[in-house]
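The pair is quoted verbatim as follows:
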Amino acid sequence: GLLLCYIVFLFCTAGVRHFNWHVAGALTLVCWIALDLLWQARLGQQAALTYRTFAGKSASEKLLASDDSAFVQFIARVKQSIKGETPRIFLASANDYGSMLSAYYIAPLNTYWHRGGPELPDRQYLSSGDYILLVTPFATRYEAADSKIRLPDDSNVPVEVLVQEHMGALLRVI
């Protein structure tokens, strides 16, 4: 900004003044240092906030102190409801961020998520005992009265609700 003002000033007083590289260099250096000091101050504030939020906490306490704490608690309840040695979990969500977090926090379980495609596979790929994790918002049609899910191929799958909250629901295919 200051360098541009200096150049405009020189242009307006072209006959009286001559361009001086020392002045241009000094203006550039002053502007650079001012911006760097502002950036360093913001970085220091963020580091202090991070320290106050997470210092001295265990890994699980840090997760609960994070911005995703409600989501982490929801996934913890979901994981407690999943039984079996090698369960298959089908993730259904229209929200990429929620889906990615779900897949991350549910790991290392066998999770299926088709990003950019249909939320759930056709009926032939689902078996009794499979789990369906619906993370809001989702496009999959869940009919609570009939305890059924409507799949992309228009077939219905009977399900049992294991966890149901505002964040989503965990269903087991019957």
